[in-house]
Amino acid sequence: MSRQFAICPFCGCGCGMHLEVFDGRLIAALPSQVHPAGAGRLCLRGWQAGTLVQSSRRLLVPQAAGKQASWEDALRAAAEGIRALAAEGPQALGVLGSGYLTNEEASATRLYATQALRTPNLDNFAWALDGGSIWGLEQTLCIPYRSPVLPEIASADVILCLSSSLCADNPQAAGYIMAAAEAGATVIVADEVDQGLRELSTLWVQHKPGARAALLQVLWSALGAPGELSAKQRDTLQQAGVDAGAFAEMCAALRKAKRLALVFSTTTVQTPAEAAHIAEIVMLLNASGQQEAAVFALRAQCNSVGVNDMGLVPGEGRARERGLSLYEMLAEPTPLRALVVIGEGLEKFVGEQGLQALRERLDFLLYLGGYQTATSELADVALPMTTWGETEGTFTCHDGSIWPLHQVVPPTGESRYLPEILRDLSVAQGGPPLPADLPSLRAEISRQVFGYRLVNWEQVAAGQRAVASAVPSEDSAEVQIPADELPVPIEAGPERPYTLLVRRDTGSWACDPRARGAEIVERELAGHRAPFLVINPQTCRNLETREGRSLTISTAFGSQTLPVRCSPGVPPEVVMLPWQFRDVARALAGPLHLDAASRAGYHLPVAAALENPSQS
Amino acid sequence: MSGLYVPQIAAIERVEEETATEKTFTLRPLNGDRLSCVPGQFILLSVFGRGEAPFCVGTAGQDLPTLDITVRRYPGGRVTEALHSLGPGAYVGLRGPFGNGFKVEALRGRDLLFVAGGIGLIPVRPLIRQVLSERDQFGRLVLLFGARQPSEILYRRELDEWQAREDFEVQLTIDVPHPDWSGHVGVVTTLFPDLEVDPARTKAIIVGPPVMYPFVVAACREKGIGDADMIFSLERYMKCGVGKCGHCAMKHKYVCTDGPVFTYEEIREIEEH
Amino acid sequence: MPALAQYSLPPTRLKDLFQRLSQAVDQVIAPTRVPPGDVFYDVVQGPDEVALDFGNSLVSPVAWLYRPVEEMFRVLPGEPPRVEPCGEEGRRLLFAVRPCDLAAIGRLDQFFLEGDFRDDLYAARRARTLLVALACATQADPRCFCSCCETGPYAEQGFDLQLSLVGDRYLLEVGSESGAALAEQCRDLLEPAAEDLAAGRAQQVQAFYAGLEQKANMPAAVRRLSSEAVPVELWDRIASRCLGCGGCSFVCPVCTCFYTTDQVREDGSIVRVRAWDSCRLEGYTREASGHNPRAHRRQRAERFSYHKLAYPCIQREGRLGCVGCGRCVTVCFGGVHMPRVAQMIRRGE
After folding, report:
1. Same domain? C342 vs C223
2. Global pTM?
3. Contact list, A523 vs chain C (CB under 8 Å)
4. Does B1 score more than 50 pLDDT?
5. What is the DSSP code (8-state) at residue A505?
6. Beta partners for C44?
7. What CATH superfamily is the domain B8-98?
């Protein structure tokens, strides 16, 4: 029996845990009480993280042309496939890396893209999820964004939370909000639907889908210029569907706050404009000298911060022209001929049908990952890599602290350490022998990544606290915030009286292949695998249907017939589609809206009609 | 070797297709062990590599060389899907029989009203068979059986035999009209209004999907049947069958060891629907 | 039950005692500090690895009797397949078990070993495990509430040996025949217990209780819950604060639920393992048909409390289903841990 400290490999909380190894097998993950993130608490995913390595969904052997292959053959096939297309110029190639990669793996990925493929088309999956809001914060605050440590939420006297979904997608933050509320804090939750936090709030501020930025803008201006709201502000609030009384109460609470925590999850606050307003509110309150305000942006992947620090970003930086971002690489028609996907399946972003279509547009798809995914099945070559628990490395948490990950069990199947695979691939392509061992990769990081120059890697490996100072962004693009922010116009009319909202919920983990191997998590997510709509119980009654029965939803983009579930948290005029059903989301809400500056993408709410097919 | 959780190896001797989704498997323990089984008991069956799940035993008696289970295949059900792909000669794991089963003694001399819905007929069938084998020990026999559609009616041939008997009143119904069906249409409780029972003499044996229970209870009560005379066989998700894994617990009772057969009086206060 | 024998031990000889006890078994499990500073009950090689300056570990030493994950048996493929047992060998000593955990072991013994079915996996491990308890009377963990569950700060029974620090001496009590045999092997380290040691320990109790922050009037909660007088809205309120992590069941030393799963190993053999499960999870009761008798979080919150606190369950399983260890206080995101829930039930609010 042995025990080793680790950081949870799921969301961006960075909870500390201990891995228990028995008989050479990873059997359990148990919380760390002394670790600052978590302090002894884990969500279900964390509690079950011990089952990930032995998941039945692991990719065990290399695959080439849909068949098992030896490492030698698979590497040769991969190198040949890429070399053939590299002749068309580096712009024809692209590399995507997961936010689950360790810093060292991410660094090796960047070296592979820049030195072996010489392509500027490089991006990471984490940015695709939280890039919009992080960009908005960074550009407004004019400094790279690091979150305070989450327990500080508990010491706030006023909390403004813009994500009612925290109970599901960030239990740590939800826990600290509940703790603050117990201690007497005022908890304001403002959101377009309620996913559980409303009941725990002191004040609930409902706004229309797509109206968050407008609400925040009026809030900012009201806080900056006390007194009566102007007619225009009142008009904007009305368009945003915000109750004037609730708004006034929110303003009053924020004015009185001594320590304000502005909390949101990047799964709900997705646009640079929304985040920019949040940053402006924080700066405004801090500038008074009487108040302290901090923003807690809760990120989607365990090494969201690290992979961006390591430079898994397009070209020379996001604001520059050169280099395609994730969504640009996946766009139709694809500008790429070959794509290298590392650490996660693409279906999470484009859906399985979307992936199929993308596959047909590409000449070559290479997948390197630890798990079987739709991407590994469609790839020309799929190479199994070692995962969390099987590799040494580091994560950088939301607050910039660097934490060690240790190898506790031998590699599963024939899987290999990613940097070694990339080195061999580079050599097989006729490229340079890239660094593939921890010391050289860490030396490379210390040399190349500004905030990591002073990191003492030995101390990190020994579990001593180390912090990477924020990595300055080389970009300096302004966030374009319209002077008069109005709710996103939704063409709701008598024909399409509902608003369709694509949002993440508890089930969004269903699209993570790692969750599929963990028995209990799989069991918990069983109801979240087939598409469904969430509607208000009243809507359900109005349409004379009941839970489990199907409704037909149509938008300007298309129409689908899907089973419904009811939730009183969804307003009567709103229909919610869980985020993980990517193909349905595209069919109903159209292509993602791509933000030109941050190059993140998100769905805008769209007008929809509902019909009970059994009535027509 | 032995152990509470260690199954014995059994071979599938015969597979019979009952409907599009149900098959009956005849299992023979490899070591020649004879099994004793009371109607209403269940076994835990392992498809090695897929897992273990409980199934009602369709045969009853002492010293049985084989036993039958009828299994519905559920899409995504790991054990049921794997089992349905197995044919004669395949090996499975077997533990049990477990559970209390029906107390046949307590039924003797009484009128019996069997109410079954869908696959609820599976645990009731061995009881009916035993009752029919000692027909003179019991009073009037009535079976009300409902299925969603004709193709889902289990044990068709046996039902026909029962219907042909003078001493057994069998009524079938399907939930919604169907072109292949000329019989009664409506959920099983729609058979109640025309039914005459002597509540003092009657014991009702009720097995079906959980949605059926509240309606049947209400219908039985209307006929004057007492709560102690309504007998249920419950199904719950379970992992062990021996009162340890906790999954089948209802308040302080375990379906696996205290049941699966309960009178309504016993579960009135504790059942969660 | 009074101790079979009592001795006195100077703290300077504690390490010697530990060494001597270690020689009697194949493996000693003791509280030890692992980086970055958490205390776990782990295999230790010597007394210097043992940490005694702790309240209680987040993971109970009960985990060494009822493992988070354990192999039940192995199937070797073939025609026909063969079934082989799994199991560890060797005698083990759990050192410095807190009295609350000892009480939990008492309930587990009742649950796994008594009744119609004896859990042979637990039984085998239990039979070759010696228990050396460490009383808490001088160091209260603020999260604990053994005062409300009558499980501490020292044990009356259930141990082979028990150590209690009283003033400048350890009181060593013998609680079983095996304990007596162990004590006999350490006889030269021990001194006769002065009469005032046990009395001195009893005097520590009030000060110890005063240091506990959690209070739960368990008898009142049990009465109220058992009389079904709890308003349903109370479970709704608990459910809205329950984030469904299952943590309370995973750290609870009394919780016994498990699921089983088949693992296909590299050599082609199939191992059935059982692992801790939680009745707080939605999938826990979902049937293959999709029907779920406890589909709502409210029902699951009620189930958890009922099993631990309701009189019919206490009667069936021998004692209250809570030992006051306070671990759920640490793990619950929403603060709806056992002492809080007991209080809510008692007040019916």
Report:
1. yes
2. 0.94
3. 259, 281, 283-284, 286
4. no
5. -
6. C28
7. Translation factors (2.40.30.10)
